Structure formats: structure tokens, C-alpha cells
Amino acid sequence: MAERNLFELLREKSILAILDGDEGFGEIETTDLNGNIEISMPYLSGPALCDISNRFGLPVTYGWNGIYQSRWAYLDDLLEHCIKNNRESDLLAFLFSKGEFVDKLKGYTPEVIESAYTKIVETVISKINGILYFGGNELVMVGDSFVIEKIGTSVKVAAPLIKTIDRDYIVKLSERAMQDVMDGNYDSAITKSRTLLEEVFCYVIEKKNETPSESGDIGKLYNQVKQLYDMHQDRGMDNRINGLLSGLEKILSAIAEMRNKGSDSHGIGAKRINISEHHARLFVNSAMTMADFVLAVGDRSAG
């Protein structure tokens, strides 16, 4: 008998009501003219739930043939579909992503947005875990991923991610970044590109049983990768290969610089850069290419 996927526990109606924005947990008081902020997930309308379902490969038309489901039922069908296709964590990552809170938090200052977003996510996950508690389980957010574990299980933030980094991981994160591009969230796409490189660098560094130098500086991380894997340009190597390696380093430098000046990780300042869709696509594809190359170097060395 197959072991039950613990994400099935999220299909309980009370949890679905939390995830679709029906359930609120008080307010965050602000001095902003826009007023207080309700502690709840963004409200997902029927049409919005159908759009998300189609995004995740479940064809749904709102009110098809004049038949409308309850909103929680649309979400339940979507969650069931994602569980069957091993995309339950991707769905939760999407629902909890900052981009989905735009309508809820727009108009507030960056400081209020950051604080409120963090408070809401923490509160919502805590309330869900209050429901899961009696079954001895808990929902844990690990970076951009979600797992359901038995209460008391040690879930490390870095180690599980490092162990699961492979080409499939690179492709999935790149796909999420490209979806941001298609949605017009160019800043988020650049941040994901930088995150992809950082995590791959940390992964190959730890494969050498070394500790990443500074995870907040991908330039320093890459230099550590070069040292550990002897990736310096070789005079005896074909000049075209050396040229490619040099180009990769320029790509890395540009991505790091663009994130510092143009991504959603920093406040808007005088040096903020406006980018276009084709630029964002170039950054995502470039980050994927470099991540794939560095991962291959690490795997080849391990083999």
C-alpha cells in the first residue's frame, strides 16, 4: 500500500479556507494613510483560482456550462492535481510568493510591505500548523520550498536544498523565474536568477566539504568555486574555451550588479535600473546556463 502524501492533509476545508483568503486573523496596525492590513492570504476569486489552475496544468474554465464551484473546491481540485504531479511545494511557493500580495499591500511603504508580508506568512503558516498539530504534523517553509514533517523532525534550512540541487532543480527554478518575466515581475525574475547561482555555488562548494565563504556575495562564492575546482583559465586550453569561461564571469558580474541595483531585494533608490522584458529573459537564461555549467563541473569532479 502506497504511503499517503502528507500534503493531502492540506485538503481539509478549514485549511483551504485559509489558503484562498477566506479566513482572517486580525489586523496589522499601521500609521499609514491606507490604514491597517488584514492578516490573511490574498483573496482568490473563482476566476483567479481557474487562472492559477491553468498555470499549473489543470484545465479549468470558470462557470463552464453555467456551473460554478465553491472557491475552496477549485483550490482543492488544484491541490489534488499538484500532489499527483509532485508540484505541491511549487503551488504553495506560488501562493505565498510576495508577488501574489501585490493587490493586498500596494500603496504602502517598502518597510511596511516587508514587515506585513513577513507577519502574514508567519501567522498563516502558524494557524495551519495549529490544525495539523493534532495529527502530529507541521508545515515547514524551507527557503522557497515547503515540506510537511512530523512535529519535532529536524528540518535544516540549507542542507535539504543543497542535497536536492540537480539539473531538474535548475530547470524548475528557471521556469519560475521565466514565469515572473511573463507576468511582468522582472525584479523577481532577476532575484531568482541570483538565488539560483548562489545555491548552485554553495552546493558545489559543500561537495568539496568546504564551507561557503559569504553566501551574500556571489562573486566571492564563484571565486571559491574556481579555487576548489581549478577553473582558472588554462594557457594550454583552446582559446575559444577560455573565451567562454571569461564570458561566464562577465555574465556573473552583470547579474550580481543588476540584482544590487535593479531587483526586488533592495529598496528603490537613485541607482534603480528599469529593465525590459528581453533584458530579464537574457538574465534568466544566462543564469541557467552558468548554473548548469558549474553544476556539471561539480558533478564531474565528484565522479
Into how many domains do the coordinates divide? 2
Describe the sheet with the most strands.
Answer: 2 strands, antiparallel
Helix-strand category: mainly alpha
Number of DSSP E strands: 4
- List segments where confidence is low: pLDDT < 50 over at least 5 consecutive residues: 154-163, 261-272
H and E string: HEEHHHHHEEHHHHHH
The strands making up the biggest β-sheet line up spatially as 1-2
Whole-number average pLDDT? 81
Using only C-alpha atoms, the radius of gyration works out to 21 Å
The amount of beta strand, in percent, is 5-15%
Quick summary:
Helix content is 57%, strand content 5%. It is built from twelve helices and four strands; from the N terminus they run H-E-E-H-H-H-H-H-E-E-H-H-H-H-H-H.
Descriptive overview:
This protein is mainly alpha-helical and 303 residues long. It has 2 domains: 6-152, no CATH class; 167-302, Four Helix Bundle (Hemerythrin (Met), subunit A). The chain is 57% helix and 5% strand. It is built from 12 helices and 4 strands. A two-stranded antiparallel sheet has the order 1-2. It has a two-stranded antiparallel ribbon with strand order 3-4. A hairpin with an 8-residue loop joins strand 1 and strand 2 (37-38). The longest helix is centred in the last third of the chain and has 26 residues, at 277-302. The protein starts with 12 loop residues before the first helix and ends with a helix.
